[in-house]
Fold:
Amino acid sequence: MKTGGQASVIFFAALALAGLTVAVHPKKPSFPNRASDPGEISLQEVQNWNEPVLWVDARPESDYEVEHVPGAVSLNPDNWSEQLPHFLDGWRPAKKAVVYCSAASCETSREIADRLRRSGVDPVYYLKGGWEAWKATR
Amino acid sequence: MTEDTISSLINPPPRMLGWVALALRVVLAGLFVLAGALKLLDPAAFALEINRYQLIPWWSCALLALLLPWLEILVGIALLTRWFSRGALAWVTALLIVFSLALLSATLRGLNIDCGCFGRVWQSTGTFWPLLRNLLLLGMTVFLWWKPRRH
Structure:
């Protein structure tokens, strides 16, 4: 069989197995809606907590200085080493921390949340929609 | 270094080339089977990894998260067993090119994301080193295309 024919057989075999996976796999992805990332949280859920939250602004410091969520601390990949001790001073175990970056498309909040988790901060979440989601409700 | 040694390095005997091809084939097959199996543990999480590249709509991320792991496992097995091995090598080459372009695009856009190459079990932040690794693997496939039938 020629190369193209062999490649087609492999593709259709993989397609059939993918179909089987949809039928039986407990962790299959949902097609219509994007699943929530573990650790991702919406602004509405944060507001429903009705408890103080430690906000973490993962945007560049220049954006933080213009405007930020009241009480938020600036913690981003550039100032991580110098700001982390200040952040830990204000954090108490079991106090929920929520990290946000500019918009839904940015990844920095997730990265900072991962770093904080590895530094022992738990629970820590990152805000779905980021700063734009916050601004939209003001 | 004697003249014979230099000559054997420039024109290695076919037997040696065959062993090199076999070794590369085993490495590529092993990596593809491992990558596919790890992704298959949690396709939903893998779909999110693909989504972070911000290149394709969600429904196609979900479809790829189901299809790619099996494709990787099957081409790995085919490379190892030499069953449809040219078709498998074609897939390996195509997948490595597509993965490399996606990684290059993420690197150029400054996205700080997990490569997603081995699902969520084996994570590594950043796209630059995975891109270099992919280019090395592509080099291996070029060798296998050049020396396909010896071993």
